[in-house]
User: Fold 3-hydroxy-3-methylglutaryl coenzyme A reductase from Melittangium boletus DSM 14713.
Amino acid sequence: MSETVTSRLAGFHKLSMVARHEKLAQMLNLDDADLAQLQGIGALQPGLANQMIENAVGTFSLPLGLGLNLQVNGKDYLVPMAVEEPSVVAAVSFASKIVREAGGFTAETDEPIMVGQVQLTGYGDPTEATRKIYAAREALLALANSFHPSMVKRGGGCRDIEVRVLPAPEGPRGEPLLVVHLIIDTQDAMGANLINTMAEGVAPLIEQLTGGRVFLRILSNLADRRLARATCRIPLEALADFDMPGSVIAEGIYQASRFALADPYRAATHNKGIMNGIDSAAIAAGQDWRAIEAGAHAFACRDGQYRPLSTWHVDEGFLVGRIELPMALGTVGGPIKVHPGVQVNMKILNITSARELSMIFAAVGLAQNFAAVRALGSIGIQKGHMALHARCVAVTAGARGDWVEKIAELLVTAGHVKVEKARELIASLSEEDFRAATGTEG
Ligand code: NDP
Assistant:
């Protein structure tokens, strides 16, 4: 790196995109090829897309923004975020700025332990089948690891087995379910493929040991042994805004937390806000965001009721936020080393391990949530949201270039952020103005 990486880039949003690229290139040693990726010039080529998925007919783009100001465990991170929704990037950056001034986020993460499931049927007595499987623990571990010796060499691999006997669900056949869990350390990989290979690999031995028949052999996306946690502690004075003292803003945030804890209808929206940040960062970093989503929501239901993934309370003059959720991420595997845009984003993230990435994502989720509950618990989100949404409305109505901002401002001033109003505004322009606004020949 040519200069220290800081995520505190004051005035970044006011720079042209070219100037933003220059700033990034300087700070992160990005080369012309990296910049070409950001500019969309060297983006994912149809030939590569054709190798990545089936029936490929092209590629599809999303805006890529940078979450700024994030500091986690004393280190600054710039967070690439791929998202179509206005306000997500601004919210993370805004919240992270308040948190960094209060000392930044503190985060931790579990070891990269995942579960592979093997479903056994027709095993006879569940206690006896369980005993036989545990008795063969060493043989099962050795067999699982024989399918991926390189993972063992780098310190990972199958570490343990567990047998679970689950009550039979309602249905015509009453056999309890017997599920063997392979407990696998996937190191810097999300791990799905290697887990599935191991789960399929041990199935014949489990059948042989028990006389049963194996059906499903696949990882679980409820990665509850691979949790990431982030916390922040903000002095109440730092929350003062909208002509309200910090204590009142904090009370609104606390009430938002209580609401989400008590009510799944609210918790779903609370968690959607968290995933706005995490999914955007996950897409940009080439992660399987469906897996992250599945894990997050299953974890949110762990005590039988759907709950918020983050909570807030006031403690001796500080607002304290905490988030905890499964984070099955990789710095290798899937599209990570294949997709050229992901590689540039990984450079920008400047991380060394999947665990480091997990902590960043947890902090991004908490930052996103902070921005949402801060507005929701005080003036509401529509004011800020509509100002950003207005740009999208202006573009939909046909505005282009500098005029997007101008029409958006007029829409907000008029208090009427609607496409039809934007069309009306464009139509009221002189012919010359109209050409400038829409980039057309009139
Ligand atoms: P890959 O199989 O693509 O890659 C992981 C491999 O990378 C490892 O097996 C390992 O192979 C190699 N590797 C190199 N360096 C490291 C390191 N430091 N730590 C760990 N591994 C390393 O990916 P995953 O197994 O992670 O699977 C993720 C993919 O699976 C995603 O694309 C996901 O979408 C998909 N998937 C997800 C499912 C789900 O979530 N339910 C189901 C099925 C697929 P080696 O040891 O040989 O070098």
Summary: The longest helix spans residues 354-376.
